[in-house]
Amino acid sequence: MQIEQPARGMRHIDLTEVELASSETARQINRDIVLQLIRTNQPISRADLSRHSGLQRSTVSQIVEQLIREKWVREGTVASPPRGRRPTLLELNEDLVVIAVDIHPEEATVATVDLNGRLLSRSLVPLTSAPASSTRQITDCMQRMQQALPRKSIEGIGISLPGRADPDTQRLIFAPNLHWPDFDLKKVIEKTMGMQVKMENAATACLLAELTFRRIEGIRDIVLVTVSEGVGTGVFANGRLISGHRGMAGEFGHVSLDTSGLLCSCGRRGCWETFASCRAALRYYKELQPQSRTITFLELLNLAEEGDQHAAQALAKQALYIGRGLQLIIAGLAPSLILVAGDITSAWHLFGPVIEKESAKYALGGALPQILPTHEGEIARLRGAAALVFQRRSGREQQHKNDTEFFLLEDRQAAR
User: Fold this and answer.
1) Label partner for 246 (CA 20 to 30 A): which of 292, 339, 351, 415?
2) Residue pLDDT tens, the chain, 416 long
3) What residues does 125 pair with on adjacent strands?
4) Are 206 and 377 in contact (CB under 8 A)?
5) Is 44:73 a contact under the CB 8 Å cutoff?
């Protein structure tokens, strides 16, 4: 006799984090689903929203009216169907914007980004090792942008960081390349601008931008790697953004590949980013061309495109070490997709195959992920900073509800 096994076992639940579902929780989840469906299908009618979401038309109408009152959604054109009523189509409100900041060790980019992820304006601000004066320059730029957009509704400020902020305190706790002493960046900007500020690691922000503004559906395991003056990693595992203890999950850039290697800004030796960052590529070029002038990474890319063999060799060596570090990620996390963001993606036709070949050398069990460039460079970091604000949540509550939203959207899409 065959004994039937139960369809489900007992699932572990962390009682320190659990939150009982309420009618308000359900309404919030439904609201987020409708908003995401409008984003990915705009312009769209209320009837089509009901069909896509599985929600009753009356429920969809209530949610849409709420989103219109909150200025997230607006009514657009009137459709012309072959028969029946002419529905008014819905779209995101492009007048709702965020001030987005992408911080690097020597400069910050300040931009305004609308709800569709489009950049409306952008300015560069030079930074120093003095956080107070650097922050003053950033807020001065923000105020000029605010004055230049009198008809836009600014929802808040999002900041992409070259380091990690504690999810609970939002204080910068790890940014070795920035060389700033302890400084409450969020508090100073909020006090000056009178707006809510959200901060996140640049790689995680880029990953959030991909999840928010691109149509990545049905993929539950993604790692995004940013390559700039350092190497950062954002992790989306089993349908969840992973932050880890104190927001430190994903610091693969500071895993040592060679304990006798160069001293890293974090204090250790031979970290992945000392081999794979843009700074490393410039160092390789200087070793090959000792008499050359100091150049930028973009200039190095241009030299390679123009046929400079030393530039091409330096970038190929960087690509080799990017791929070598990806072996750690593939073995440790087994993602189905790895996204690479940064200026090197503009020369992916030259160096992408090097990265892919090296990363595949030690794949376990044939579990090879797809490796793709974002082709958006620094724009992805700004969009990610904007997405932090458009999420409208913070800390554990944001993570818990984000997890639920990703699961529900995938389940509903699979059911269709």
Assistant:
1) 339
2) 444 444 444 544 454 554 555 677 788 888 888 988 898 888 999 999 999 888 999 999 999 999 999 889 998 777 666 555 678 899 999 899 999 999 998 899 999 999 988 999 999 999 988 899 999 999 999 999 999 998 898 999 999 998 888 888 888 888 888 888 778 899 999 999 999 999 999 999 999 888 887 767 788 999 999 999 999 999 999 888 888 888 888 899 999 999 999 999 999 999 999 999 999 999 999 999 998 899 999 999 999 999 999 999 999 999 999 999 999 999 999 999 999 999 899 999 999 999 999 998 877 777 789 999 986 767 888 999 999 998 754 333 344 344 434 333 443 444 34
3) 108
4) no
5) no
Query: What is the residue type of 146?
Result: Q
Task: Give all domains of the chain, ordered by start, each with its CATH number.
Answer: 23-93 (1.10.10.10), 96-207+381-402 (3.30.420.40), 218-377 (3.30.420.40)
Based on the number of CB atoms within 10 Å of its own CB, is 381 exposed (0-12), middle (13-18) or buried (19 or more)?
A: buried
Q: Record the tokens describing residue 376, joined without a space.
A: 């958006």
Cα of first residue to Cα of last residue in the chain, in angstroms, is: 37
Say if pTM beats, i.e. exceeds, 0.90: no
- What is the side-by-side strand order in the sheet with 337-342? 240-242, 231-237, 222-227, 337-342, 370-373
Rounded CA-CA distance 251/407 in Å is: 26
42: number of Cβ within 10 Å: 14
Is the bond preceding residue 43 a cis peptide, omega within 30 degrees? yes
